[in-house]
Structure formats: C-alpha cells, structure tokens
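Q: Fold this one first, please.
A: Sequence and structure below.
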Amino acid sequence: MVEMDAKNEISDWIVGAALAGRNEGDIVAGLCERMIAAGLSLVRASVAGNLLDPTFDARLVRWLRDQGGVEEAVPRTDDASTVEDWKRSPFFLLVEGRQQMLRRRLDATYRRGEFPMLDRFQDEGVTDYVAFASQVGESVRLGEGEGIVASWTTDAPNGFTEAQIELLHGILPALTLAMLLLTTNRNARTLITTYLGSNAAERVLAGNIVRGRAEPIRAVVWYSDLIGFTRISDTTSAANVLALLNDYAEAQVEEIEAQGGHVLKFTGDGILAIFPHDDTPVACKRALNAAAGQRSRIATLNLRRSASGLPVTDTHVALHVGELLYGNLGSSRRLDFTVLGPAVNEAARIEALCASLEQTIIVSSAFAEAAGDARGLLVGLGRYAMKGVARPQELFTVDLG
C-alpha cells in the first residue's frame, strides 16, 4: 500500500509538472528527489527519447546524486566511434531488441564486459541497474521515436527491492506522457521554425493561421540566386548539386539571420528574405552588412571547395525597399506564410540585371533613398528599364572598399 501511494503521488506530481510547463531536467530532478524520499538510494537516472530535428537525433536528461539534472541534445552523426558506443549501451539493446525491461545486479554475480558503462558503474560502487522502454502507439508518434527509455541505479547494499522495481515501473506511464508532451511541443516548434524561419514561425505559433490574414509591413527585400547554376547542374552529379546548394544556402542564411533578416523561401537556387525594422535605415544597413558578409563567407567556402576539387560559384543579390503584405496565402488546407507585393517582383527583376551589368550586388533607388548614412556606400550604375516595372529607375551597387 505504501508503494502504491508513492506511485500515485509521484505520478500525479509528474503530470502536474509537465502541464505547468516545467522542463525535462526539472521533472527528472524532482522525480528523483521524490524517489529518494520514498526510500530509494538513487545514484543516477537517465531518460532519453528521439527528436525530430535536422541537427539533433535525441535528447538525454541525466540526473546524478551529487550534481543534479543535466540535459543533453545528441547530435546526428555518422562518426564510427559514437555509433559503436551506442551499440554497446543498454539502451540500444532495449530499443533494437524491442525489450521492455533490462536489469543487471552489479554484485559478485555480474558478468563484466557486456556493457562498458555498467562495468564503470560497478567500479564506482553501484550495486543495481534497471532500465525500461516505454512504447507509444503509432498515431501519437512524430518521426522515428516510439517512446522513451529510462534507467536507474542504486548503491544500496542489496540493490533495488522488488517493491522498488515495481515503483519505478509504475511511474513510467506518467513519465512517458510528460516527456512526450514536452518533446512533441519542442519538435513542433523546431520543425515550424526550420521550414518557415523564426519570425514567420513565431507568428504562426501565436495563432496567425487564417488564410488571407496578412499584415502590411515595410521592409528591405533580399532576392538572390547562384551564378551559373544551370551550367553546374548540367555537368555535376545530383548528389554534388545538392551539396553545393546546401553549402551556398548556409553561407547566405547564416549571414542574413546574423544581421536580423528572415529567410522566407528557397526557390531552387534562389533565396527570398526580408529585413523588417521600424527604422528603415537600420534595416538597410543590416541588409548591406549581410550582403558583404555573405561574400566573405562564400570566398572562404570557395577556397575549401576548390581544394577538394568541387565546383564553385557566387551569388547575385538584389536589395529593395517597399510595402509588403506579410501573412497567409494559399488554399484552405495548404498555406504559405510569405510576403506579397510589387516590391518582391521588382527585387526579382533587379536581380536579373546583375549578370548583364556584371555586378554581384545591385540595390534599387528606393533602397538608396532609405539607406540613411549607408547611402555613402552606394555607387550609381545609371537608369534601367525592367520588365513589369512602370518606369526606368536608377540602380546602384555597393562599394565594398
């Protein structure tokens, strides 16, 4: 009865903590504190689950009696040593073997060499190790994750009692629900941010999901593409073309975001981004800094790719300023969160002139007029007519000195 009361009390606390928005580290630490109060001599606890994240493969929460809780995101990697370490862990046996429980008493009967991790635990005075895998139904999974795995160690002289094992197993459903609630929320935010960009993601997550709902904004428009991409793609393997696109997109996106810009769309080898700011000259300065910064990044990238015998290229960038509609466009069940307006079309037309004018960066007259102190960095190129634009306008390039 005492164990049942402890199980119910701890399970209720786990659920309440998750609903209150406490993070995984706090929940595992609080859980361990309550387990100790219930009589368990815990040394260590670990809880892990998969992430649906382009950079990280899993999230591990580890609690140590003398250190408290630590959270760790496990990077995606093909490193052979990391993969081998995973294959020699108890969690691997649980997950790949689709087992629900694994227990090893780390006493005189323990057979060393099966799991290097447990050999180390035994050397440190741990007497018992138990791990559980908790699986959930396919309809509530995201990505490859099927649930969580959790492990516990003790240094009690006789290890865990059977009642304590029952307690650890009994709180597993509540712990699984709590961890999956937080992981699903984290995965959703990561995915939306990854595919929409941080600014658009914040707006969508705040509830801006209605078709036709758009906000008028004034912003700098960035439109760029890669020089000679068609020629490169015609003479390079598909795998190398994809790697090239990723390399040059990374160089541009990291610089755009470092300067406060928001990438909205990849169109083949092209990028559409905006620099919104209440003070337009500030937005212009940031866009110019991004244009200069990405050229430096690309120069470094080209040295590395050339040294590896890979094709290299450069970018054409157009910068424009205008009034935009920023919001939802599409059908009732398939929306795109993007910007609309003549300024976007004009930026694309300006970018198309980069090749004929032999310039890597061209900015519009509207940009020049709004640039404030940064106007001194611009050099006139003359007046040009553009398809779909009512009147010829003066265009400028940037003196990067």
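Q: Good. Now the second chain.
A: Here it is, same layout.
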Amino acid sequence: MFGEVLTATVTPFDAEGAIDYERYRELCAYLVDNGSDGVVVSGTTGEAPTLSDEERLELLRVALDAIGDRATVIAGTGTYSTAHSIHLTEQAHEAGAHGFLVVTPYYNKPPPRGIVEHFKAVAAASDRPVMVYNIPSRVVINIEAETMAELAEIPNVTAVKQANADLEQARKIIQLGLDLYAGDDNIVYPFLEVGGRGGVCVHTHVVGPQVREMVRRFREGDVEGARQIDDELEPAYELLGVVTGPIQIKAALRMVGQDVGGLRLPLVEANDQEQALIRNCLDRLGVLEQASV
C-alpha cells in the first residue's frame, strides 16, 4: 500500500533558516528517481519538532505536487498531544496525503491503554492508512505485542515502522496482518528475511538505488545477492551512527552535491571530526565518485 522503499526526508533550509520549498520539491523528485517508492514528510529526520503547523502543511503540499502522481506521500502527524496529532492529521488529509506516520506519544509515557486510545482517536481523523511508528529508543516506550494486537484492530492501521531489532517482535507484527517496515536502516534486510515489506529509511538519501536493488533481488529470490548488497551498505549504517540525525545525513547530502542547507537549533552542524568520518563512509560507498562525475 505504501511501497517498499520509503525515505524519511530532510527539510531543506535557506541561509536565513527558512524552508527552501523549491529545493524540497527537487529533493522529493530526486529521491523518487533514485530508488524511493515514496517519502515521509515532516518526520524526525525532517526536524518536525522545529516546524510550525503551517510549514508542515506547505511541505506536504509541495511533495504532493512534485511526486504525488507517481509516488506515495506520507505525512508525519504524530506528537505527544492527541489533540494536536488529530489536528495535523485532519489538515494532512484535507491536503491529500496518501497516509500518515504516527509515532508513539513521547515524553509523557502513557500506559498501554492510553497508547491504544491515542491511536484510535488519531486514526479516526481520516479513512486513509496509518503507519504506527514504534521507536522505543526515542520515546522510552516499546509497544508490546498485546498492545500492538489492539492497534491492529483499528481498521485503517495497516503498517508498523519498527525501530527495534527484536526479530520476534517483528514476526508478531506480521502475524497480526500488518505490513512491517524497518525503522532503522541496518535492519531492512533482516526484516525482509522474516517477511517485512521494506523500510522507512534515511540512508536512501544517498544510497537509494542500492537499497532498491537489494529489495528487488530479495523479492526475486536472489537472497545471496541481496545479502551481499546489505554487506556493502555497512558504511551507510556506520554513517548514521556518527552523530544524531539529521545532522549526519544533511552533511552527507552536501558532500554528494545535494545542498539542503543547515539545521534548526537545538541541532547543530557536524564538526570537523564528524565530517571526516562521514566523508570516509561516503568514500567507501563509492558515492563521492558518482557525485563528481
């Protein structure tokens, strides 16, 4: 329904820190031309916590206008406020989003029954598909199997972005009839092996064609070929661990000729040591050579 390779997009800024919407239009087209079946707008990688509601909505409109007729456009509408999440979902629905990525409420640590009620309320704001985003490392809560089973009963909850390497949990999500997407780039291949649909990725900003080829080979039965590409992508996984995202991927994009500007505080630019590590990863991936051609 959403596709297999989705990119959680960065948000380009100009020299004054305002969103560069024309650059975002170009970025979305570039990603779809280079392996992505769709994009996620205003996720964490897009620095959503620093965006106004108006900026989120305009980014969504730009993405839909740029690629909405040939790729999936998913709006990140989850916050730790159910009322605000409903508002963002209603706005995104009206704008024409194909679906919604809704993160587990963060910081306020609701009990499982609160998580279920949150997703019920947000999903009710639209009849379009909702992808649950389970990322315990960021929100401090892991959606356990029993809670996930209740979420699966919500009619338009169709998928899970699972940023958790527990393969047993991953299998249980699939058994519930939900599409499983890797929420960490280094677990796309392991999730494919257990029946996953694909990934919502960050490294696909710079290695989209390689990830697309890995998924294609796996689907066509060339498991060894897919595994080999996964091994070759190790520097991309290392890159994402150099420093908090999207600091590292914005630095990487600039190095390969995709100028997406700086970051909004509290995020800061990669320092010299971090940039050297990022450049080394890109060099080992061979993408710096491609960018210079």
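Q: Anything worth noting on the second one?
A: The first strand starts at residue 5 and ends at 8.
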